[in-house]
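Researcher: We plan to redesign the surface later, but first we want a full-length starting point. Tokens attached.
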């Protein structure tokens, strides 16, 4: 199975599945091929905290829900603001790195990712870490998006 997205006549983003018969078992592509992009947009890690917040952190700005699904939705909402500012969609995301503080929440996180990405599965890495920058943050996402030519 090859998932392909054409955003213009010259930019093609293709999910690479060396074993297409096994692709249904994975919530990400092992690799993504991008043909002739105009450029790449590298997104800084986003948590459920507001996209713009003070540094050093002010605790009142980082009141986060306990639910991993809601934290994932908020992080994705922050990312959508950035994608929209460049007229990009989830289909332009070619690499997604997910940082979780509890791997037992992985399936719930993936459920929310599917709500946004649909059948598109960018290349991905999942990392379990002890803590994130904001107290109570349980997920952080960073992405690379291909900007069409």
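Model: Full-length starting sequence:
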């Amino acid at each position: 199975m090859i998932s392909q997205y054409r955003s213009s006549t010259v930019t093609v983003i293709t999910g690479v599945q060396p074993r297409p018969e096994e692709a249904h078992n994975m919530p990400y592509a092992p690799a993504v091929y991008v043909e002739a992009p105009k450029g790449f947009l590298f997104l800084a890690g986003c948590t459920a905290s507001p996209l713009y917040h003070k540094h050093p952190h002010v605790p009142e700005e980082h009141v986060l829900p306990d639910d991993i699904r809601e934290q994932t939705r908020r992080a994705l909402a922050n990312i959508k603001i950035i994608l929209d500012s460049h007229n990009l969609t989830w289909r332009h995301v070619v690499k997604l790195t997910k940082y979780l503080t509890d791997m037992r929440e992985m399936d719930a996180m993936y459920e929310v990712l599917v709500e946004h990405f649909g059948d598109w599965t960018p290349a991905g890495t999942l990392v379990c870490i002890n803590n994130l920058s904001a107290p109570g943050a349980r997920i952080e996402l960073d992405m690379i998006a291909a900007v069409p030519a």
